[in-house]
Q: What sequence folds into this?
Protein backbone atom coordinates (compact mmCIF):
# COMPACT_ATOMS: atom_id res chain seq x y z
CA UNK A 1 0.00 0.00 0.00
CA UNK A 2 1.16 3.50 -0.81
CA UNK A 3 -0.07 6.33 1.36
CA UNK A 4 0.40 10.05 0.76
CA UNK A 5 -0.34 12.14 3.80
CA UNK A 6 -0.60 15.90 3.38
CA UNK A 7 2.30 16.11 0.92
CA UNK A 8 3.43 19.59 -0.07
CA UNK A 9 5.94 20.52 -2.75
CA UNK A 10 6.86 23.88 -4.24
CA UNK A 11 9.48 24.77 -6.85
CA UNK A 12 10.41 28.34 -5.92
CA UNK A 13 7.17 30.31 -6.01
CA UNK A 14 5.38 27.57 -7.90
CA UNK A 15 3.25 25.70 -5.36
CA UNK A 16 2.68 22.34 -7.01
CA UNK A 17 1.41 19.95 -4.34
CA UNK A 18 -0.61 21.55 -1.55
CA UNK A 19 -1.63 18.78 0.77
CA UNK A 20 -1.89 15.65 -1.37
CA UNK A 21 -3.55 12.85 0.60
CA UNK A 22 -4.20 9.54 -1.09
CA UNK A 23 -4.15 5.81 -0.44
CA UNK A 24 -3.34 3.24 -3.09
CA UNK A 25 -4.29 -0.24 -1.86
CA UNK A 26 -1.92 -3.12 -2.49
CA UNK A 27 -2.51 -5.02 -5.72
CA UNK A 28 -4.81 -2.38 -7.15
CA UNK A 29 -4.54 -0.23 -10.18
CA UNK A 30 -4.89 3.45 -9.38
CA UNK A 31 -5.16 5.94 -12.19
CA UNK A 32 -4.32 9.59 -11.58
CA UNK A 33 -5.93 12.11 -13.85
CA UNK A 34 -5.72 15.88 -13.87
CA UNK A 35 -4.72 18.80 -16.07
CA UNK A 36 -1.19 19.19 -17.39
CA UNK A 37 1.15 20.75 -14.89
CA UNK A 38 -0.92 19.90 -11.83
CA UNK A 39 1.90 17.86 -10.33
CA UNK A 40 1.02 14.29 -11.23
CA UNK A 41 4.55 13.40 -12.29
CA UNK A 42 5.97 15.22 -9.27
CA UNK A 43 3.75 13.12 -6.98
CA UNK A 44 5.19 9.88 -8.38
CA UNK A 45 8.73 11.23 -8.14
CA UNK A 46 8.14 12.07 -4.49
CA UNK A 47 7.46 8.40 -3.74
CA UNK A 48 10.73 7.36 -5.40
CA UNK A 49 12.71 10.07 -3.63
CA UNK A 50 13.61 11.78 -6.91
CA UNK A 51 11.89 14.88 -5.57
CA UNK A 52 11.94 15.69 -1.86
CA UNK A 53 8.58 16.84 -0.53
CA UNK A 54 8.67 20.04 1.53
CA UNK A 55 6.20 18.67 4.02
CA UNK A 56 4.09 15.59 4.61
CA UNK A 57 4.66 11.88 4.73
CA UNK A 58 4.76 9.12 2.15
CA UNK A 59 4.51 5.54 3.33
CA UNK A 60 4.97 2.33 1.40
CA UNK A 61 3.57 -0.70 3.23
CA UNK A 62 3.41 1.32 6.42
CA UNK A 63 7.06 2.42 6.30
CA UNK A 64 8.34 5.89 5.65
CA UNK A 65 9.56 5.94 2.05
CA UNK A 66 12.56 8.11 2.91
CA UNK A 67 13.95 5.70 5.51
CA UNK A 68 15.69 2.37 5.26
CA UNK A 69 17.82 0.83 2.54
CA UNK A 70 17.42 2.80 -0.71
CA UNK A 71 18.55 0.01 -3.01
CA UNK A 72 16.19 -2.55 -1.54
CA UNK A 73 13.39 0.00 -1.65
CA UNK A 74 13.95 0.97 -5.27
CA UNK A 75 14.35 -2.65 -6.34
CA UNK A 76 10.64 -3.10 -5.63
CA UNK A 77 9.67 -0.41 -8.14
CA UNK A 78 9.43 -0.08 -11.87
CA UNK A 79 8.89 3.30 -13.45
CA UNK A 80 7.97 4.41 -16.92
CA UNK A 81 8.97 8.05 -17.29
CA UNK A 82 6.81 10.48 -19.19
CA UNK A 83 9.51 11.04 -21.82
CA UNK A 84 10.74 7.45 -21.86
CA UNK A 85 14.12 8.44 -20.33
CA UNK A 86 15.97 5.73 -22.24
CA UNK A 87 19.77 5.71 -22.01
CA UNK A 88 20.77 6.75 -25.48
CA UNK A 89 24.29 5.38 -25.15
CA UNK A 90 22.96 1.82 -24.81
CA UNK A 91 21.15 -0.36 -27.34
CA UNK A 92 17.49 -1.07 -26.69
CA UNK A 93 17.94 -4.49 -25.15
CA UNK A 94 20.53 -3.24 -22.66
CA UNK A 95 18.12 -0.50 -21.69
CA UNK A 96 15.41 -3.03 -21.01
CA UNK A 97 17.75 -5.40 -19.19
CA UNK A 98 19.59 -2.61 -17.35
CA UNK A 99 18.78 -3.97 -13.90
CA UNK A 100 19.58 -7.51 -14.98
CA UNK A 101 23.06 -6.63 -16.21
CA UNK A 102 24.40 -5.12 -12.98
CA UNK A 103 23.85 -5.00 -9.27
CA UNK A 104 22.04 -7.55 -7.19
CA UNK A 105 19.79 -8.91 -9.92
CA UNK A 106 22.74 -9.49 -12.25
CA UNK A 107 22.58 -12.60 -14.42
CA UNK A 108 24.38 -13.94 -17.50
CA UNK A 109 24.25 -11.70 -20.54
CA UNK A 110 22.47 -14.20 -22.77
CA UNK A 111 19.75 -14.75 -20.21
CA UNK A 112 19.29 -11.01 -19.62
CA UNK A 113 18.97 -10.51 -23.35
CA UNK A 114 16.40 -13.26 -23.61
CA UNK A 115 14.29 -11.63 -20.93
CA UNK A 116 14.66 -8.26 -22.64
CA UNK A 117 13.49 -9.64 -25.97
CA UNK A 118 10.53 -11.30 -24.26
CA UNK A 119 9.53 -8.05 -22.52
CA UNK A 120 9.88 -6.19 -25.81
CA UNK A 121 7.52 -8.69 -27.40
CA UNK A 122 5.01 -8.04 -24.64
CA UNK A 123 4.94 -4.33 -25.46
CA UNK A 124 4.50 -5.11 -29.15
CA UNK A 125 8.07 -4.68 -30.36
CA UNK A 126 9.79 -7.23 -32.57
CA UNK A 127 13.19 -8.75 -31.64
CA UNK A 128 15.04 -6.81 -34.32
CA UNK A 129 14.43 -3.62 -32.33
CA UNK A 130 16.66 -5.05 -29.59
CA UNK A 131 19.94 -4.06 -31.19
CA UNK A 132 18.93 -0.61 -32.31
CA UNK A 133 19.66 2.54 -30.34
CA UNK A 134 16.88 4.59 -28.75
CA UNK A 135 17.53 7.58 -31.02
CA UNK A 136 16.65 5.42 -34.03
CA UNK A 137 13.13 4.72 -32.75
CA UNK A 138 9.93 6.71 -33.04
CA UNK A 139 8.52 8.39 -29.94
CA UNK A 140 5.87 5.72 -29.50
CA UNK A 141 8.43 2.95 -29.80
CA UNK A 142 10.68 4.64 -27.22
CA UNK A 143 7.73 4.80 -24.87
CA UNK A 144 7.15 1.09 -25.25
CA UNK A 145 10.82 0.33 -24.66
CA UNK A 146 10.53 2.41 -21.48
CA UNK A 147 7.55 0.32 -20.51
CA UNK A 148 9.46 -2.89 -21.16
CA UNK A 149 12.30 -1.60 -18.98
CA UNK A 150 9.85 -0.73 -16.19
CA UNK A 151 8.49 -4.27 -16.06
CA UNK A 152 11.74 -6.11 -16.84
CA UNK A 153 12.60 -7.08 -13.26
CA UNK A 154 9.00 -7.99 -12.35
CA UNK A 155 8.54 -5.21 -9.79
CA UNK A 156 5.87 -5.24 -7.08
CA UNK A 157 4.95 -1.62 -7.61
CA UNK A 158 4.82 -0.01 -11.01
CA UNK A 159 4.42 3.64 -11.97
CA UNK A 160 3.37 4.50 -15.49
CA UNK A 161 3.62 8.14 -16.45
CA UNK A 162 1.40 8.65 -19.50
CA UNK A 163 1.99 5.20 -21.00
CA UNK A 164 -0.24 5.68 -24.04
CA UNK A 165 0.54 9.28 -24.95
CA UNK A 166 1.89 9.37 -28.48
CA UNK A 167 0.75 5.86 -29.40
CA UNK A 168 -1.75 4.97 -32.11
CA UNK A 169 -5.12 3.69 -30.82
CA UNK A 170 -4.29 0.03 -31.48
CA UNK A 171 -0.95 0.21 -29.67
CA UNK A 172 -2.65 2.12 -26.86
CA UNK A 173 -5.06 -0.80 -26.59
CA UNK A 174 -2.18 -3.27 -26.43
CA UNK A 175 -0.53 -1.27 -23.64
CA UNK A 176 -3.77 -0.91 -21.70
CA UNK A 177 -4.25 -4.67 -21.82
CA UNK A 178 -0.66 -5.21 -20.77
CA UNK A 179 -0.96 -2.95 -17.74
CA UNK A 180 -4.18 -4.65 -16.72
CA UNK A 181 -2.49 -8.03 -17.13
CA UNK A 182 0.50 -7.04 -15.00
CA UNK A 183 -1.77 -5.98 -12.17
CA UNK A 184 -4.00 -9.04 -12.36
CA UNK A 185 -1.38 -11.71 -13.08
CA UNK A 186 1.57 -10.48 -11.10
CA UNK A 187 -0.52 -8.90 -8.37
CA UNK A 188 1.45 -5.68 -8.76
CA UNK A 189 0.33 -2.36 -7.39
CA UNK A 190 0.13 0.17 -10.19
CA UNK A 191 -0.17 3.94 -10.36
CA UNK A 192 -0.81 5.24 -13.83
CA UNK A 193 -0.98 8.83 -14.97
CA UNK A 194 -3.01 9.38 -18.09
CA UNK A 195 -5.14 11.89 -19.96
CA UNK A 196 -6.72 9.23 -22.08
CA UNK A 197 -10.21 8.38 -20.80
CA UNK A 198 -10.29 5.10 -22.74
CA UNK A 199 -7.16 4.10 -20.88
CA UNK A 200 -8.68 5.10 -17.55
CA UNK A 201 -11.63 2.80 -18.11
CA UNK A 202 -9.42 -0.03 -19.33
CA UNK A 203 -6.78 0.13 -16.61
CA UNK A 204 -8.27 1.53 -13.44
CA UNK A 205 -9.64 -0.12 -10.34
CA UNK A 206 -9.73 3.29 -8.72
CA UNK A 207 -9.38 6.80 -10.06
CA UNK A 208 -8.07 9.92 -8.38
CA UNK A 209 -8.27 13.39 -9.81
CA UNK A 210 -5.57 15.87 -8.90
CA UNK A 211 -6.51 19.53 -9.03
CA UNK A 212 -5.01 22.54 -7.29
CA UNK A 213 -2.35 20.41 -5.65
CA UNK A 214 -4.88 18.20 -3.86
CA UNK A 215 -7.00 15.20 -4.64
CA UNK A 216 -10.25 16.59 -5.91
CA UNK A 217 -12.06 13.27 -6.16
CA UNK A 218 -11.16 9.64 -5.67
CA UNK A 219 -13.21 6.48 -5.93
CA UNK A 220 -13.80 3.25 -7.84
CA UNK A 221 -13.80 3.68 -11.59
CA UNK A 222 -17.44 2.58 -11.77
CA UNK A 223 -18.50 5.62 -9.78
CA UNK A 224 -16.52 8.05 -11.90
CA UNK A 225 -19.40 8.87 -14.24
CA UNK A 226 -21.90 9.77 -11.57
CA UNK A 227 -19.66 11.44 -9.02
CA UNK A 228 -21.62 14.67 -9.15
CA UNK A 229 -18.32 16.55 -9.04
CA UNK A 230 -18.34 19.34 -11.63
CA UNK A 231 -14.51 19.35 -11.90
CA UNK A 232 -14.34 15.64 -12.61
CA UNK A 233 -17.26 15.82 -15.04
CA UNK A 234 -15.61 18.61 -16.96
CA UNK A 235 -12.38 16.65 -17.20
CA UNK A 236 -14.01 13.36 -18.22
CA UNK A 237 -16.03 14.97 -20.94
CA UNK A 238 -13.29 17.33 -22.06
CA UNK A 239 -15.42 20.46 -21.89
CA UNK A 240 -13.82 23.85 -22.30
CA UNK A 241 -16.55 25.36 -20.12
CA UNK A 242 -16.61 24.57 -16.42
CA UNK A 243 -15.01 25.23 -13.06
CA UNK A 244 -11.49 24.37 -14.30
CA UNK A 245 -10.06 27.44 -16.00
CA UNK A 246 -8.85 26.83 -19.54
CA UNK A 247 -5.98 29.26 -19.04
CA UNK A 248 -3.57 27.99 -16.40
CA UNK B 1 26.87 52.59 -4.46
CA UNK B 2 25.57 50.38 -1.70
CA UNK B 3 23.66 48.40 -4.27
CA UNK B 4 26.84 48.00 -6.30
CA UNK B 5 28.77 46.75 -3.29
CA UNK B 6 25.89 44.50 -2.38
CA UNK B 7 25.93 43.11 -5.89
CA UNK B 8 29.64 42.39 -5.72
CA UNK B 9 29.22 40.83 -2.28
CA UNK B 10 26.45 38.59 -3.53
CA UNK B 11 28.63 37.50 -6.46
CA UNK B 12 31.52 36.68 -4.17
CA UNK B 13 29.25 34.73 -1.83
CA UNK B 14 27.77 32.83 -4.76
CA UNK B 15 31.24 31.98 -6.00
CA UNK B 16 32.34 30.78 -2.58
CA UNK B 17 29.20 28.66 -2.37
CA UNK B 18 30.01 27.07 -5.72
CA UNK B 19 33.59 26.36 -4.63
CA UNK B 20 32.22 24.72 -1.50
CA UNK B 21 29.79 22.59 -3.49
CA UNK B 22 32.46 21.53 -5.99
CA UNK B 23 34.77 20.54 -3.14
CA UNK B 24 31.98 18.54 -1.57
CA UNK B 25 31.28 16.95 -4.93
CA UNK B 26 34.94 16.00 -5.29
CA UNK B 27 34.98 14.38 -1.84
CA UNK B 28 31.79 12.52 -2.67
CA UNK B 29 33.39 11.27 -5.89
CA UNK B 30 36.33 10.02 -3.89
CA UNK B 31 34.04 8.18 -1.51
CA UNK B 32 32.15 6.52 -4.34
CA UNK B 33 35.45 5.62 -5.96
CA UNK B 34 36.54 3.50 -3.03
CA UNK B 35 33.21 1.78 -2.40
CA UNK B 36 31.79 -0.88 -4.74
CA UNK B 37 30.33 -1.36 -7.26
CA UNK B 38 32.81 -0.20 -9.90
CA UNK B 39 31.50 0.06 -13.45
CA UNK B 40 34.41 -1.27 -15.51
CA UNK B 41 32.69 -0.91 -18.88
CA UNK B 42 31.95 2.74 -18.26
CA UNK B 43 35.56 3.22 -17.21
CA UNK B 44 36.76 1.55 -20.40
CA UNK B 45 34.67 3.73 -22.63
CA UNK B 46 35.78 6.83 -20.69
CA UNK B 47 39.42 5.83 -21.24
CA UNK B 48 38.73 5.65 -24.94
CA UNK B 49 36.82 8.93 -25.07
CA UNK B 50 39.12 10.99 -22.89
CA UNK B 51 42.46 9.44 -23.73
CA UNK B 52 42.67 7.81 -27.10
CA UNK B 53 40.32 10.09 -29.00
CA UNK B 54 42.04 13.20 -27.64
CA UNK B 55 45.38 12.19 -29.13
CA UNK B 56 45.04 13.95 -32.50
CA UNK B 57 44.11 17.33 -31.07
CA UNK B 58 46.76 17.07 -28.35
CA UNK B 59 49.42 16.07 -30.89
CA UNK B 60 48.63 18.90 -33.29
CA UNK B 61 48.48 21.51 -30.56
CA UNK B 62 51.80 20.41 -29.09
CA UNK B 63 53.55 20.18 -32.44
CA UNK B 64 52.62 23.66 -33.60
CA UNK B 65 53.34 25.18 -30.21
CA UNK B 66 56.77 23.56 -30.06
CA UNK B 67 57.54 24.82 -33.54
CA UNK B 68 56.43 28.36 -32.79
CA UNK B 69 58.36 28.30 -29.54
CA UNK B 70 61.56 27.40 -31.36
CA UNK B 71 61.08 30.26 -33.81
CA UNK B 72 60.43 32.79 -31.04
CA UNK B 73 63.32 31.72 -28.89
CA UNK B 74 65.62 31.79 -31.86
CA UNK B 75 64.48 35.31 -32.79
CA UNK B 76 64.57 36.53 -29.19
CA UNK B 77 67.82 34.76 -28.37
CA UNK B 78 69.61 36.24 -31.39
CA UNK B 79 69.21 39.72 -29.89
CA UNK B 80 71.84 38.84 -27.33
CA UNK B 81 73.67 36.16 -29.23
CA UNK B 82 72.01 33.31 -27.42
CA UNK B 83 70.38 31.44 -30.33
CA UNK B 84 72.00 28.25 -29.14
CA UNK B 85 69.66 27.93 -26.14
CA UNK B 86 66.72 26.95 -28.36
CA UNK B 87 66.74 23.22 -27.47
CA UNK B 88 67.01 23.85 -23.74
CA UNK B 89 64.30 26.51 -23.58
CA UNK B 90 61.95 24.58 -25.85
CA UNK B 91 62.38 21.52 -23.65
CA UNK B 92 61.86 23.29 -20.38
CA UNK B 93 59.02 25.45 -21.71
CA UNK B 94 57.16 22.52 -23.16
CA UNK B 95 57.67 20.10 -20.30
CA UNK B 96 57.19 22.42 -17.37
CA UNK B 97 54.47 24.74 -18.63
CA UNK B 98 53.11 24.61 -22.13
CA UNK B 99 52.66 20.86 -22.40
CA UNK B 100 50.49 20.44 -19.31
CA UNK B 101 48.64 23.74 -19.71
CA UNK B 102 47.83 23.35 -23.37
CA UNK B 103 46.81 19.73 -22.99
CA UNK B 104 44.74 20.71 -19.95
CA UNK B 105 42.97 23.45 -21.85
CA UNK B 106 42.40 21.20 -24.86
CA UNK B 107 40.92 18.59 -22.54
CA UNK B 108 38.71 21.27 -21.00
CA UNK B 109 37.51 22.24 -24.46
CA UNK B 110 37.05 18.73 -25.75
CA UNK B 111 36.25 16.55 -22.77
CA UNK B 112 34.73 18.85 -20.17
CA UNK B 113 32.26 20.24 -22.68
CA UNK B 114 31.20 16.86 -23.97
CA UNK B 115 30.85 15.37 -20.48
CA UNK B 116 28.82 18.37 -19.31
CA UNK B 117 26.55 18.36 -22.36
CA UNK B 118 26.01 14.62 -22.16
CA UNK B 119 25.22 14.50 -18.47
CA UNK B 120 23.11 17.65 -18.61
CA UNK B 121 21.07 16.15 -21.44
CA UNK B 122 20.66 13.01 -19.38
CA UNK B 123 19.45 15.12 -16.50
CA UNK B 124 17.03 17.11 -18.62
CA UNK B 125 15.57 14.00 -20.25
CA UNK B 126 15.13 12.28 -16.87
CA UNK B 127 17.81 9.68 -17.62
CA UNK B 128 19.50 10.49 -14.32
CA UNK B 129 16.20 9.89 -12.52
CA UNK B 130 15.85 6.65 -14.43
CA UNK B 131 19.33 5.56 -13.31
CA UNK B 132 18.38 6.17 -9.70
CA UNK B 133 15.17 4.19 -9.98
CA UNK B 134 17.18 1.36 -11.52
CA UNK B 135 19.24 1.28 -8.29
CA UNK B 136 22.32 2.70 -9.97
CA UNK B 137 24.05 5.61 -8.33
CA UNK B 138 24.75 8.37 -10.90
CA UNK B 139 27.97 9.27 -9.08
CA UNK B 140 29.26 5.73 -9.43
CA UNK B 141 27.97 5.15 -12.93
CA UNK B 142 28.77 8.52 -14.51
CA UNK B 143 31.21 10.55 -12.43
CA UNK B 144 33.66 8.04 -10.99
CA UNK B 145 34.58 6.33 -14.31
CA UNK B 146 35.11 9.66 -16.08
CA UNK B 147 37.16 11.28 -13.33
CA UNK B 148 39.28 8.19 -12.86
CA UNK B 149 39.84 7.84 -16.60
CA UNK B 150 40.93 11.46 -16.81
CA UNK B 151 43.26 10.97 -13.85
CA UNK B 152 44.92 8.07 -15.63
CA UNK B 153 44.99 9.28 -19.23
CA UNK B 154 45.63 13.00 -19.08
CA UNK B 155 49.14 12.59 -17.61
CA UNK B 156 49.87 10.21 -20.49
CA UNK B 157 48.51 12.75 -22.94
CA UNK B 158 50.69 15.41 -21.34
CA UNK B 159 53.74 13.15 -21.65
CA UNK B 160 52.97 12.55 -25.30
CA UNK B 161 52.29 16.26 -25.79
CA UNK B 162 55.68 17.10 -24.24
CA UNK B 163 57.47 14.75 -26.61
CA UNK B 164 55.60 15.94 -29.68
CA UNK B 165 56.14 19.57 -28.66
CA UNK B 166 59.87 19.01 -28.35
CA UNK B 167 59.80 17.23 -31.66
CA UNK B 168 58.00 20.25 -33.19
CA UNK B 169 60.75 22.52 -31.93
CA UNK B 170 63.36 20.09 -33.16
CA UNK B 171 61.82 19.92 -36.63
CA UNK B 172 61.77 23.68 -37.00
CA UNK B 173 65.24 24.11 -35.54
CA UNK B 174 66.82 21.45 -37.70
CA UNK B 175 64.92 22.16 -40.91
CA UNK B 176 65.00 25.92 -41.04
CA UNK B 177 67.21 27.30 -38.28
CA UNK B 178 70.27 25.27 -39.15
CA UNK B 179 70.68 23.30 -35.92
CA UNK B 180 72.51 20.01 -35.92
CA UNK B 181 70.04 17.20 -35.31
CA UNK B 182 72.01 15.08 -32.88
CA UNK B 183 73.35 18.02 -30.90
CA UNK B 184 69.80 19.35 -30.56
CA UNK B 185 68.56 16.08 -29.09
CA UNK B 186 71.62 15.71 -26.89
CA UNK B 187 71.12 19.20 -25.47
CA UNK B 188 67.47 18.49 -24.79
CA UNK B 189 68.12 15.24 -23.00
CA UNK B 190 71.02 16.63 -20.97
CA UNK B 191 69.11 19.66 -19.88
CA UNK B 192 65.86 18.11 -18.64
CA UNK B 193 65.76 16.91 -15.05
CA UNK B 194 63.54 14.27 -13.49
CA UNK B 195 61.63 16.92 -11.53
CA UNK B 196 60.64 18.61 -14.81
CA UNK B 197 59.02 15.43 -16.01
CA UNK B 198 57.44 14.63 -12.68
CA UNK B 199 55.90 18.09 -12.42
CA UNK B 200 54.57 17.73 -15.95
CA UNK B 201 52.80 14.47 -15.19
CA UNK B 202 51.49 15.61 -11.81
CA UNK B 203 50.03 18.69 -13.45
CA UNK B 204 48.46 16.48 -16.08
CA UNK B 205 46.77 14.33 -13.46
CA UNK B 206 45.48 17.38 -11.58
CA UNK B 207 44.19 19.05 -14.72
CA UNK B 208 42.54 15.85 -15.87
CA UNK B 209 40.68 15.51 -12.59
CA UNK B 210 39.60 19.15 -12.72
CA UNK B 211 38.39 18.85 -16.30
CA UNK B 212 36.34 15.69 -15.77
CA UNK B 213 35.02 16.75 -12.38
CA UNK B 214 33.79 20.13 -13.64
CA UNK B 215 32.08 18.49 -16.59
CA UNK B 216 30.25 16.05 -14.33
CA UNK B 217 29.42 18.66 -11.71
CA UNK B 218 27.96 21.15 -14.18
CA UNK B 219 26.05 18.44 -16.00
CA UNK B 220 24.51 17.08 -12.81
CA UNK B 221 23.50 20.58 -11.72
CA UNK B 222 22.13 21.62 -15.08
CA UNK B 223 18.97 23.68 -15.31
CA UNK B 224 15.95 22.54 -17.29
CA UNK B 225 15.53 22.46 -21.04
CA UNK B 226 17.94 23.07 -23.92
CA UNK B 227 18.95 26.35 -22.32
CA UNK B 228 19.95 24.52 -19.17
CA UNK B 229 22.20 22.21 -21.17
CA UNK B 230 23.79 25.15 -22.97
CA UNK B 231 24.49 26.99 -19.72
CA UNK B 232 25.88 23.91 -18.03
CA UNK B 233 28.26 23.29 -20.93
CA UNK B 234 29.47 26.87 -21.10
CA UNK B 235 30.03 27.25 -17.38
CA UNK B 236 31.78 23.89 -17.12
CA UNK B 237 34.39 24.86 -19.72
CA UNK B 238 34.85 28.30 -18.19
CA UNK B 239 35.28 26.92 -14.70
CA UNK B 240 37.56 24.09 -15.80
CA UNK B 241 39.82 26.43 -17.79
CA UNK B 242 40.17 28.97 -15.00
CA UNK B 243 40.73 26.27 -12.39
CA UNK B 244 43.34 24.58 -14.56
CA UNK B 245 45.28 27.82 -14.96
CA UNK B 246 45.01 28.57 -11.25
CA UNK B 247 46.11 25.05 -10.35
CA UNK B 248 49.01 25.39 -12.76
CA UNK B 249 50.16 28.50 -10.99
CA UNK B 250 49.93 26.80 -7.61
CA UNK B 251 51.68 23.65 -8.74
CA UNK B 252 54.46 25.58 -10.46
CA UNK B 253 54.94 27.39 -7.16
CA UNK B 254 55.06 24.14 -5.25
CA UNK B 255 57.52 22.49 -7.61
CA UNK B 256 59.91 25.23 -8.60
CA UNK B 257 59.88 28.14 -6.20
CA UNK B 258 61.66 26.35 -3.39
N1 LIG C 1 12.50 19.74 -11.24
C1 LIG C 1 11.63 20.74 -11.34
N2 LIG C 1 12.03 22.01 -11.14
C2 LIG C 1 11.16 23.04 -11.22
N3 LIG C 1 9.86 22.91 -11.51
C3 LIG C 1 9.38 21.67 -11.71
C4 LIG C 1 10.24 20.52 -11.64
N4 LIG C 1 9.50 19.42 -11.89
C5 LIG C 1 8.24 19.86 -12.11
N5 LIG C 1 8.16 21.21 -12.01
C6 LIG C 1 6.95 22.03 -12.15
O1 LIG C 1 5.93 21.41 -11.40
C7 LIG C 1 4.71 21.51 -12.07
C8 LIG C 1 4.07 20.14 -12.18
O2 LIG C 1 4.83 19.36 -13.06
P1 LIG C 1 4.43 17.87 -13.44
O3 LIG C 1 4.29 17.07 -12.21
O4 LIG C 1 5.43 17.41 -14.44
O5 LIG C 1 3.02 18.06 -14.13
P2 LIG C 1 2.06 16.94 -14.72
O6 LIG C 1 0.87 16.91 -13.82
O7 LIG C 1 1.69 17.39 -16.09
O8 LIG C 1 2.82 15.65 -14.72
C9 LIG C 1 4.97 22.19 -13.39
O9 LIG C 1 4.61 23.55 -13.27
C10 LIG C 1 6.45 22.05 -13.57
O10 LIG C 1 6.94 23.15 -14.27
MG1 LIG D 1 3.66 14.67 -16.16
A:
Amino acid sequence: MIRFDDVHKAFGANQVLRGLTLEVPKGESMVIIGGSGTGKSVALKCVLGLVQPDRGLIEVDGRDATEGDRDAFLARFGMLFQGGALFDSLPVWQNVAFRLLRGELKRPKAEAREIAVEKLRRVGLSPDVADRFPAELSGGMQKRVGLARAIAADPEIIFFDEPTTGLDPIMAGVINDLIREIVVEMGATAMTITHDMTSVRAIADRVAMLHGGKIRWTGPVAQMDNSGDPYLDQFIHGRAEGPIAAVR
Amino acid sequence: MIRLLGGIGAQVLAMLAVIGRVTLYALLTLRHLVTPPFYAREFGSALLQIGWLSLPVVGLTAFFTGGALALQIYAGGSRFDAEAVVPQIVAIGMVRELGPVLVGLMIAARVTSSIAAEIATMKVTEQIDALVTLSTHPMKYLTVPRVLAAFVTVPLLVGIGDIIGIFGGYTVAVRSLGFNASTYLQNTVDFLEPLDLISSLVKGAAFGVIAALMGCYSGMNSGRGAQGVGRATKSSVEAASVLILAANFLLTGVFFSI
In short: The mean pLDDT of chain A is 91. The domain at 2-237 of chain A is CATH 3.40.50.300 (Rossmann fold). The first strand of chain A starts at residue 2 and ends at 11.
